[in-house]
Design a protein that fits this description.
It is a single chain. This protein has 10 helices and 15 strands. With 324 residues, it is an alpha/beta fold. The N and C termini lie close together (11 Å).
Length: 324
């Protein structure tokens, strides 16, 4: 089978495509014939050796895919060859087939395409866990989403609206903001030309926001934290803009506010039953509330390095997916 391989930590352009033996599932494992694999920001960090998890070299990148089960290992119950599924694992998705522990696999809704299935679970799972378990976002509260046109940003915009919140979307271009507005944002901030904190004051009439959802970090973090209302919650989702910020924590004291980390992958590993409940809720929203990933573009498997670079350079609105 064809697979993308990382043989040394480095630039995405250094990835190679090789013919490798078709793997066999062991006890508790499934083999999934991959139809589509999402390109996620952690994939770019993993191939550079910059992520918390460093797999042994060589490895196949990719933490999320959708396809069809074609082999079931010993001890697996509840799955059968031919079933359409989404699979989530730290690595392995950038290939024509992958081996996945059964607990990392969920059956796809019949209405969901493989491309949507590949782009859905990790991104929307992250946003849902962040807003529900960590941020405790309630109806009629105000949510500020930074990086609102990226994959996890758009997911947060849509989920925030589904939860009944007022959503302020912040992004760097008019085109990105237009997409966030289509996805349900109530107010828009172009932080490339507007002062983030001052615009939040204007939009909220000085009150501030109840929850900040921040996948960017860097220079955006401090003005966003200063924009919190009393008892606000600041969600640290990632650092796609570059530097990990150093924040003045006295602001938290003055606002009775909290900073909360969001490490979805580890939470899902530690709380598998709660994660299954979250995914079930998200699939219901997909069916009933038109919760859809925006697919910016698709790439062939051979172009995986180019796809990762496209994402790392922040040229993406929504999601990028590899198709087989």
């Amino acid at each position: 089978m064809k697979a993308v391989q990382c043989v040394a930590f480095g630039a995405p352009e250094d990835l190679i495509v090789a013919d490798v033996p078709l793997p066999e599932p062991g006890p508790g494992e499934l083999r999934v014939r991959v139809h589509a694999a999402a390109v996620n920001y952690p994939d770019g960090l993993i191939v550079q050796g910059l992520y918390q998890h460093k797999p042994a070299l060589p490895f196949v990148p990719g933490l999320e895919a959708a396809g069809v089960i074609d082999a079931v290992g010993p001890g697996c119950s509840g799955f059968a060859p031919g079933e359409r599924v989404a699979a989530m694992a730290p690595v392995g998705a950038y290939a024509e087939a992958m081996i996945v522990p059964a607990e990392k696999v969920v059956k796809l809704d019949d209405a969901m395409s493989f491309v949507d299935g590949a782009a859905f679970c990790t991104t929307y799972g992250t946003a849902y866990h962040a807003l529900v378990q960590r941020g405790r976002l309630a109806a009629r509260e105000t949510l500020l989403v930074l990086g609102a046109a990226g994959g996890v940003g758009l997911a947060a915009v849509q989920i925030g609206k589904a939860l009944g919140a007022r959503v302020i979307a912040a992004a760097s271009t008019p085109g990105k903001l237009a997409l966030a507005e289509v996805m349900g944002a109530d107010a828009l901030i172009d932080y490339s030309v507007e002062d983030l904190r001052e615009r939040v004051k204007e939009i909220t009439e000085g009150r501030g926001v109840d929850v900040v959802y921040d996948p960017l970090g860097d220079r955006f973090a401090e003005p966003a934290m200063r924009s919190l209302a009393w008892d606000g919650r600041y969600l640290v989702v990632g650092f796609a803009a570059g530097e990990i910020p150093r924040l003045p924590t006295n602001i938290l004291l003055l606002k009775n506010a909290a900073i909360l980390g969001v490490f979805y992958g580890e939470w899902a590993r530690r709380e598998p039953a709660a994660n299954r409940d979250n995914l079930a809720a998200l699939f219901r929203l997909y069916r009933e509330a038109d919760l859809r990933p925006h697919i910016d573009r698709t790439f062939a498997l051979d172009d995986a390095g180019t796809a990762i670079r496209f994402l790392l350079d922040r040229k993406v609105m929504g999601k990028v997916v590899l198709t087989m």
